[in-house]
Amino acid sequence: MQKVFLFAVLFIGVNIIQAQLKVGDIAPDFKLTNTDYQKVALSDYNDQEGVIVVFTCNHCPYAKFYEERINLLHKTYAPQKFPVVAINPNDSVKYATDGFSHMVKKGYKFPYLLDNEGVYKAYGATKTPHVFLLNNTGKGFEIAYIGAIDDSPQEASQVQVKYLEDAISSVKAGKAAQPAITKAIGCSIKPFQ
Prior knowledge:
InterPro entries: AhpC/TSA, PRX-like1, Thioredoxin-like_sf, Thioredoxin_domain
Number of strands: 9
Radius of gyration: 17 Å
Order of helices and strands: HEEEHEHEHEEEHE
Strand order of the largest sheet: 5-4-3-7-8
Structural class: alpha/beta
Organism: Carboxylicivirga marina
CATH topology: Glutaredoxin
Mean pLDDT: 91
Strand content: 15-25%
Distance between the termini: 32 Å
Number of helices: 5
Low-confidence stretches: 3-18
Pfam families: AhpC-TSA
Protein name: Thioredoxin family protein
């Protein structure tokens, strides 16, 4: 009985791992509602060199710590054809401040999309914030980097390694990001049921 249970747990665990995107995979398209009430799709960015997809929310302290850094990333990299697209996967029934009206109040200069369709599952996002750097290969958006924005989730002034910015520099130079994966630090996603 114990062997059967252990096998079932391992089988389920392997399937969950396999369902997550890996570096080198083609990112699935999405079409979600932005805070300006318009639909935004990944395919809308086919004229860009890449996209910085950030799964984030309003209520999580870590997401709040990163708000200004995410704004700065967009301001810096959108002109270089690597804009930010933020996606909120959290259920606003559980966390009212993650509701659409609160998303609108953020006033971000980049799309902030409501994920009521489970896009976070297709990407394998588990935290807020959780970053996926996409590189436009001309045949689709390839995952170039997955993980954290930098090495200091709480204090921007203490950042020593800017993982995402280093990854963007590598991609722009035609190289693989090193590291290509880091551990995302943040609150667990509270998805729509």
